[in-house]
């Protein structure tokens, strides 16, 4: 397993740029899908995506690329590569009939879909384990369906409320391993028109986990997985008291030397 250098904190990690060798590698793999006519070059790109992203193997890569990958966290690599994988997968699905794979997905398509499913469903857990070590007992663990955000029953009998420190740590972890809104929008933009290019018969063996993504989309529903959910701040209800003389209206203004002398007068 590749060991990456640790960073000072989540904020610094998220704000760092992606090293140039990694960007070059990703564009080189994507270029095979941008040609007017798909050739056999895309098959090698599918293998490279799966090998580097899913299997986390750097053997055979250039020293500069290997060093660049080890200089960032695995989650940063996944986030940088996800838009590329989305575009490449959408290109293969849109050309499925031209490639002669109407009835059954080819080997390359299977590898790329498997990579996409891993990035959307399992990457948060795997990257969290790489970052913090082990399964820390969080709700990221388990199967793909375990990534669904669930409301915590805190303070009820049999469910003691955890400490504030643990709450903050868990929330920070979830917030860190979230996809950006731009990534979610890109997924919807690319795959909403192509959702019926994927059949239920395609999602077998290695691709079976992807059913939690595509089944809701076939039914025009949002997939209930963490990749399509984001933590939001609760709406605060701020209750303020009214002073006897401080009656606010659009036609009133406050005058006075200091707060104690304030009084309201009507604007003519």
TrEMBL record:
Could you give a GO molecular-function term held by this entry? monoatomic cation channel activity
What Gene Ontology cellular component terms go with this record?
A: axon; cation channel complex
Gene Ontology process terms (BP): monoatomic cation homeostasis
InterPro entries from the UniProt entry:
UNC80_N
**Limits of the Cation channel complex component UNC80 N-terminal domain:** 17-234
Q: For the region Disordered, what residue ranges are annotated? A: 149-171
The name of this protein is Cation channel complex component UNC80 N-terminal domain-containing protein
